[in-house]
Amino acid sequence: MIPLLVLVGPTSVGKTELSLHLAARLGAEIVSADSRYLYCGLDIGTAKPGRAELARIPHHLVDVTAPDQPWSLAEYKRAAVAAIEDIYARGRLPLLVGGTGQYVRALLEGWQIPAG
């Protein structure tokens, strides 16, 4: 089993700053578990990390698709698992951060999601 540190909570409670601090201290890379962070350009109203924050620590699953290209839960889980495995294979700690409960639960509880 791959070690995975998880930080969850609602929008704008300070997850980003805490995750940056933890990632720097622990040698971690951040995997977003926020359904809105996936979309390029959805910065206002989402509390998405800014360019400076994204440059401090490697982030995964941020700005990966256009707003007119919806991602399913199955697509998210597949991409998140791949990112987590890659981070761990490189000797780093994956840090799952976000507030989309369904994304977090799908990963932590090992949901089997039909492709579709």
Feature tags:
116 residues; alpha/beta; Rossmann fold; four-stranded parallel sheet; globular
CATH topology category name = Rossmann fold
Please write the CATH class name: Alpha Beta
Order of helices and strands: EHEHEHEH
Per CATH, the superfamily is: P-loop containing nucleotide triphosphate hydrolases
State the total count of DSSP E strands. 4
User: What's the end-to-end separation, in Å?
Assistant: 27 Å
**Whole-number average pLDDT?**
92
| Oligomeric form | single chain
Poorly predicted residue ranges: none
Describe the fold and architecture:
It is a single chain. This protein has 116 residues and is an alpha/beta fold. The chain has one domain (5-108): Rossmann fold (3-Layer(aba) Sandwich), CATH 3.40.50. Helix content is 37%, strand content 15%. The chain has four helices and four strands; from the N terminus they run βαβαβαβα. The protein has helices at 15-26, 51-56, 73-89, 101-108; strands at residues 5-8, 28-32, 59-60, 93-98. Strands 1-4-2-3 form a four-stranded parallel beta sheet, sandwiched between helices. The chain starts with a strand and ends in an 8-residue tail after the last helix.
Quick structural gist:
With 116 residues, the chain is α/β, with parallel strands linked by helices. Helices cover 37% and strands 15% of the residues.
Q: What does the secondary structure layout of this molecule look like, with pairings?
A:
Layout: E1 5-8, H1 15-26, E2 28-32, H2 51-56, E3 59-60, H3 73-89, E4 93-98, H4 101-108
Parallel strand pairs: 1-4, 2-3, 2-4
